[in-house]
Specification:
The complex is a heterotrimer. Chain A is an all-alpha fold. Chain A contains 16 helices and no strands. In chain A, helix 8 runs antiparallel to helix 13. Chain B is built from 15 helices and 21 strands. In chain B, helix 3 packs across helix 13. Chain B starts with 19 loop residues before the first helix and ends with a strand.
């Protein structure tokens, strides 16, 4: 497959996943702002901005966070490269360039999302945010579904999935990192209504509120949440699931190309470390330190994948 | 201008035979159904993403080219003649290219002036002395035809480089079959969907001698901002070929390679949709970033085939056009099946005088222009426009040719008020490789504005499905 | 005359480039008056690519060099036995019709100054006219290195009244075409004799097509026709088109610098 095509597929997936993340964050922000909190809802919006890494951009444009501005920032604003609109547009543009590597259904899903987005933009920001987040979740599910149901299981499919998993690992880690302090075992807050709410908001941002209860039952504790988001293989957004997904698709590529790669080895190392990990040891290292390290490793893996497969600079193995 | 020949209603009599079955269809198409179908067609086009951007204008790359649902129909016999004429022309144009980049017999024989060829900007010095595989320079020849009567067809111009629009021929048919399956059951319409397979076979048949095994073919596009990008990706998809940009290819040693996730892969045939000038900064424009450095050296040493071959453009130049009938006689020893439109060359003093005396009745075009820009349609122009054009013409006569205003045929077309005649032209796409192939179909462009003769999509033109009935 | 050539071109990049592709026209033309005794072209780390003779009769050799690299050198070494043909190009196989060489390029475009210069020259027949044009150009543009640069046009050089061999050749080509004579730019080497005359070892001159005789070389920079001191490499519409080395670096972000050293010596003396 053409390196540039693989690169485009990889980025379609990353943008779609990023759009999904932006919509979830919008949903979480709106939900939290509905309840009274000690610090006021502002700090919650702050952490949302922090999670998308666009806090500075936002302040330059709007100043202090106000809910209305935040809604349009996270959803419609083209000045925010991580907004739902920016990501869907970028995903569709990448799709347009590699039309031939997509099925009609996948293109249709990408294009429909873009066309409907333009209608939403024309209609203006008069809508209920929950309607917007539902719409965005539906679009990303449509694209994801079309990929799974119709795409050839060739190398392009693997690059798409690597993009999805890498973006998702990054977003899970960042989201946790922004809220890591609510997960720290501090006795004074245990059992307080606030913590519980923060926890459920975090799970909600991962689209995993119900799933958590199914998986763990019983009481919600910080350790269980950390376990669920980092080490639980049933959770589709946990770090271990994402890394295992990357490693698996790199294995498939290696088999198809008849050649192992350094990226594959790196992904397997990361997976092995997660498999051997426990929540206790993560807390011992420090949750924030652990997550920072993970984010760095995931970025390095992304760079390696780019160099080996996506840049087209590899020589002498034709 | 005389009343135009209408392809459905003739010059006044009853419905012509090829269109007979459409009368019924039209009768059962109330306004509401028509609007519904039109909306459906538009939604389909938008959904599949077939869009068009005006040449050189940037503009909205997602603009749709208007599609008119009323088909244009040819009988098998009418088509048989066009088929002969188009193939004949495609053969002669390629013979001409082999000749003028080789021994130049037609020039030595005095049948065409050396200057018209040799001093032509489209004549590539770098192409001289190299014969491409099978002696084919122009692998896809698009011939623009107009009609003025039941049996009167004229060639308006030839397109030997990379004629665009074939995706519309294929998609228009697809859409019509989806929307009006009954029409296709009632009429015996010859299919056009073999085009992609034939194009692929044509490209494979001109692989270089150095190619071993199945040739690797790619389509080279300037990128997604090009107005015809949709077509490039559409064709790549239909043929199962990689769509590449210049940056995806590189020259290493004696060959051209493609950058892939598995490492470099050797490329044998490049169907390029970029102009000669941008192909290779080492040979042509040094500032081009769209091309592949070193490509021309590999091409000229037989390491890769380029379709069309660099330099093919000299055959479709408007100054060369007037000599095509002469080429047919010279190379094929045949009389042209399809005639040229009578043309006055303004470079010639007596022709110029005639043109200036009759400016208001003529169509005057720039020799190197395209897309319907920079032209004067005398009978449609205001007095001031004619005079302004006269000044430009006098300043640089060699840059212009003139032709009579032809009463282009019309085909019924859906308009706001119902159905009305609109002027059309026709572009069949002839494939030239190991064999010469022509699918029974073409692109019909229609001037949607009442009375307009300009069919270019950049100036209010639309497209129609074009049928050839089985005998 | 037996001439030896030692020509090195060194490209240095401030930041390493990913790869490089070059197209060379560095082999002496096959024609009467020059016989190659030995000739070797080498490129540091280069892979030989396409190798063919084009329609103009020039030997073209492609090279690709995989990076990353900060410096490459192109070296030409060889010996050629030359004889004087009084500037006439004989025994040279080429397929391009002379009329093609009437085409103008940006560097050889005519202007009023060139028009006046061309109009002043007179001579009985094409050959005499060509000589007169070469003399006129030699008189109108004084040899002065540094006065012009690689992209100076014929019109600019004439207006300036100064230039180097490239400018002389461009001006002569423009004037010849104005008078209806096909003309082209030739690149090659010149043996710089110790006669006090300013010469350029990597040299350029013009060829004018004279009906009945064929292509004839004129070197306005030295006010003569090419003789046994000259080695012909290739031709083109202008300096860019006839360049002995053309190349493109991929991933070049920093500055590129060029260092050329040419020595043409008489080997037999």
């Amino acid at each position: 497959m053409l390196s540039r095509t693989a690169d485009n597929l990889f980025w379609i997936a990353r943008y779609m996943e990023r759009a999904d993340t932006a919509a979830r964050l919008l949903d979480m922000g709106c939900r939290i702002s509905l309840i009274p909190s000690a610090q006021g809802y502002r700090s919650e919006w702050d952490s949302v901005l922090q999670a998308t890494g666009t806090g500075d951009l936002f302040r330059r444009k709007y100043g202090e966070p106000v809910q209305r501005n935040l809604e349009s920032w996270l959803f419609f604003d083209r000045d925010n490269p991580s907004s739902v609109a920016s990501c869907l547009t970028a995903a569709r543009e990448n799709g347009r360039i590699v039309r031939t590597a997509l099925t009609a259904q996948v293109w249709d899903a990408l294009n429909t999302a873009f066309q409907e987005l333009r209608q939403l933009e024309r209609a203006g920001p008069s809508r209920d945010p929950s309607e917007l987040t539902d719409w965005a979740a539906r679009q990303s599910a449509m694209v994801r579904g079309a990929i799974d149901a119709t795409l050839l299981r060739d190398d392009g499919y693997n690059f798409l999935n690597i993009g999805y998993h890498l973006e998702r690992a990054d977003s899970t880690a960042r989201l946790m990192d922004v809220k890591y302090y609510v997960l720290l075992p501090r006795l004074d807050f245990v059992g307080s209504g606030l913590d519980n709410y923060q926890w459920s908001a975090l799970l909600r941002a991962m689209g995993a509120g119900r799933a958590f209860h199914w998986a763990y039952g019983g009481e919600v504790t910080a350790a269980r949440i950390a376990d669920f988001l980092i080490l639980n293989r049933q959770n589709p957004r946990s770090l271990i699931t994402c890394v295992a997904g990357i490693a698996g698709h790199l294995d498939l590529l290696a088999r198809a190309y008849g050649r192992e790669s350094a990226a594959q080895a790196r992904a397997h190392d990361m997976r092995a470390a997660l498999e051997a990990g426990t929540v206790a040891r993560i807390f011992d290292e420090g949750l924030h330190e652990y997550l920072s390290r993970f984010i760095g490793e995931a970025a390095a893996l992304g760079t390696l994948i780019h160099e080996i497969y996506l840049s087209g600079e590899m020589r002498g193995c034709g | 201008m005389d009343a135009a020949f209408d392809e459905m209603n003739g010059s006044g009599g009853g419905t012509r035979i090829p269109y007979a079955r459409l009368e019924d269809w039209l009768a059962h198409m109330p306004r509401e159904l028509r609007s519904l179908k039109q909306a459906e067609a538009e939604a389909l086009f938008r959904r599949i993403g077939i869009t068009f951007a005006v040449y050189g204008e940037g503009g909205d790359p997602d603009r749709l080219i208007p599609f008119d649902m009323f088909p244009r129909v040819f009988s098998g016999a009418e088509w048989a003649r066009l088929d002969r004429g188009v193939r004949q022309r495609a053969r002669a144009l390629n013979a001409f290219l082999v000749d003028v980049y080789g021994r130049g017999e037609i020039i030595r024989a005095g049948r065409i002036p050396a200057d018209i060829v040799c001093r032509n900007a489209a004549y590539e010095k770098a192409a001289v002395g190299f014969v491409p595989p099978r002696g084919v320079y122009s692998h896809i020849v698009g011939i623009d035809l107009v009609r003025t009567g039941p049996d009167e067809f004229f060639v308006l111009e030839d397109n030997c480089r990379t004629p665009s629009g074939v995706s519309y021929m294929l998609e228009n048919r697809e859409i019509m079959m989806r929307m009006f399956p009954a029409l296709f059951r009632e009429n015996r319409i010859q299919p056009v969907d073999s085009y992609a397979g034939l194009l692929r076979r044509t490209l494979a048949s001109v692989a270089p001698l150095k190619c071993e095994g199945e040739p690797r073919i790619v389509i080279l596009t300037p990128g997604p901002f090009n107005s015809a990008y949709y077509e490039h990706s559409f064709l790549a998809d239909l043929m199962g070929l990689e769509l590449v940009e210049g940056q995806d290819l590189f020259v290493d040693g004696e060959y051209v390679w493609e950058r892939t996730t598995e490492g470099p892969k050797r490329v044998d045939v490049i169907y390029r949709r970029i102009d000669d000038a941008f192909l290779d900064p080492l040979c042509f424009r040094p500032d081009s970033t769209l091309g592949v450095p070193g490509l021309m050296d590999v091409y000229r040493s037989g390491g890769v085939s380029l379709c069309s071959a660099p330099g093919a453009g000299v055959a479709d130049d408007k100054a060369v056009y007037t000599y095509v009938p002469e080429m047919i006689r010279f190379y094929l020893g045949e009389e042209p099946v399809l005639n040229n439109v009578p043309t006055w060359k303004c470079a010639d003093a007596s022709d110029l005088k005639y043109v200036l005396d009759n400016l208001a009745d003529l169509v005057v075009k720039e020799v190197h222009g395209s897309g319907g820009y920079g032209m004067l349609v005398g009978p449609k122009a205001s007095r001031a426009e004619v005079e302004a054009f006269r000044a430009r013409l006098c300043a640089d006569p060699a840059n212009y040719i003139a032709q009579p205003t032809l009463a282009l045929s019309t085909v019924p077309t859906f308009v706001d008020e119902g159905v009305a005649p609109r002027h059309v032209d026709l572009r069949p796409y002839c494939l030239v490789g190991e064999r010469i192939e022509l699918v029974p179909g073409a692109l019909t462009r229609v001037a949607l504005r009442e009375g307009s003769l300009v069919v270019n999509s950049s100036q209010g033109g639309g497209v129609k499905d074009t049928w050839v009935l089985a005998e | 005359m037996r001439l030896s050539v030692d020509h090195t071109t060194r490209y240095s990049y401030a930041s390493p480039v990913r790869s490089l592709v070059q197209s060379h026209r560095l082999t002496p033309s096959v024609c009467e008056g020059q016989r190659v005794l030995s000739w070797e072209i080498s490129v540091t780390g280069g892979i030989r690519g396409a190798d063919f003779t084009d329609g103009a009769g020039d030997r073209i050799q492609g090279w690709s060099i995989a990076g990353p690299l900060s410096e490459i050198g192109v070296t030409v070494k060889g010996e050629v036995e030359t004889t004087d043909t009084a500037g006439v190009l004989r025994g040279h196989r080429e397929a391009i019709r002379p009329e093609v060489w009437l085409r103008e390029t940006a560097m050889t475009a005519a202007d009023a100054g060139l028009g006046a210069l061309a109009a002043r020259a007179s001579g009985e027949g094409s050959l005499a006219l060509a000589h007169a044009l070469a003399e006129a150009v030699a008189g109108a543009i004084a040899y002065r290195p540094g006065a012009t640069h690689a992209h100076t046009t014929a019109a600019e050089a004439l207006a300036l009244g100064e230039g180097v061999c490239q400018d002389h050749a461009h001006a002569l080509i423009a004037c010849a075409r104005l008078r209806g004579l096909p003309a082209r730019y030739v690149s090659g080497y010149l043996f710089a004799a110790a006669d006090g005359q300013p010469h350029e070892a990597a040299h350029a001159w013009a060829e004018i097509f004279v009906a009945g005789l064929g292509w004839v070389g004129f070197d306005p920079a030295n006010a003569c026709c090419p003789d046994a001191r000259y080695i012909r490499l290739g031709s083109g519409f202008d300096a860019r088109d006839a360049a002995p080395i053309r190349g493109v670096a991929r991933g070049a972000s920093g500055a590129e610098s060029l260092d050329v050293a040419v020595a043409v010596l008489s080997a037999g003396q």
